[in-house]
Amino acid sequence: MAESNVAAWPSSKPEQEQEQELEAGLLKPETKQPLPLPQVSSQRRNITDQLHPAFYIAFWITTSSGVILFNKWVLAAANFRFPLFLTTWHMTFAAAVTQLMARYTNLLDSRHKVPMDIETYKRAILPIVILFSLSLIGGNLAYLYLSVSFIQMLKASTAVVTLLATWAFKIVPPNFKVLGNVSLIVFGVVVASFGEIKFHLLGFLFQVCGIIFEALRLVMVQRLLSSSEFKMDPMVSLYYYAPACAVINGALMAVVEVPRMKLADFASVGMPLFIINACVAFLLNVSTVLLIGKTSAVILTMSGILKDILLVASSILLFGDPVTGQQFVGYTIALGGLVYYKLGSETLQALAQETTLKVNDVRQNHPARLRYAIVASAFFLVTLLWFFLGTLAP
């Protein structure tokens, strides 16, 4: 399953989950006076409330990157050239797990707040499901022809295509100042594309189609499901999307891939790895719910940028994907434009001011800790730069 299965949801600023307060009212039998509230009871929280936000960021980056690298390995390295089967398997697994969760747990109880019937499903959900399936198929087909690093560079343009789609559907009025801001992303992607050594036109077209379908899906989500009664977290959305996606992808798979499938193709991967692959894809949805619920939109955006950088580095290390100096420059420009477009100048200024205040506070109260942090950061940046420069293709 391509990363776009969970790439973005219709929320400019995700709502934070509210902590439930615990009641305590123990009484002494003889006096009937309330006992003092124990210290431990004020800290009795769900395990997810006790974890540091860095855990959710790391969990999301690991699962998101893991799905992409795992899919690339299955489709290319293991020579299992059936991307339609892979997406159908992921959706079937997700449908089965979400159905079990809905039946035996209360984790998907928020679905009862969504007014859903057959007519609403056909009008609001089915068009999104079709676009979702097409984006997954296009994205996975691209892995057969393109490197992970180049695909990630192309995905930087998803924000631009989504913006243009919102203008085309008249969801928001055109803003040429915003268009000027996103032009930096387009320029960076173009520079990176012309620098790609293993360029494959068919793979490029598959990825472009996947980006277009994903952008249209996001627009449909924003247009049809952004009202308060239709707001759904990624897990509830998966509960509704997965069965229909499995059917649509399965029908395409039966026509395109089943006639040329052999048992030897499945033996090259093995059922245990197929199960692990589906579990990692499902955990991506879980990590998305946790990241949205426990952090902010700014953290989500910055985590996505960090994930893209780590993915490019991982693809170079694991698959030997060549990256030219021109691609390095182009992708850096695209990422810079993406950060500016998603966060805006005001947010970036606020982050800079907050960072300055924290640095000054640490410098005054913990000077040794600041020196260690500077040395570690410099070492990390030098190592990362050395790695990229050492792997740049001529």
From TrEMBL:
Residue stretches making up the Sugar phosphate transporter domain: 54-341
UniProt keyword terms in alphabetical order: Membrane, Transmembrane, Transmembrane helix
Chain residue ranges for the region called Disordered: 1-39
Transmembrane segments: 54-75, 82-104, 124-146, 178-194, 201-220, 240-259, 271-292, 370-389
Chief place where the protein resides: endoplasmic reticulum
Compartmental location: Endoplasmic reticulum membrane
Record membrane topology: Multi-pass membrane protein
Superkingdom to which the source organism belongs: Eukaryota
PANTHER family, sorted: SOLUTE CARRIER FAMILY 35
Assembly with partners or alone: Homooligomer.
Task of the protein: Involved in the import of GDP-mannose from the cytoplasm into the Golgi lumen.
Family in the record: Belongs to the TPT transporter family. SLC35D subfamily.
Name assigned to this protein: Sugar phosphate transporter domain-containing protein
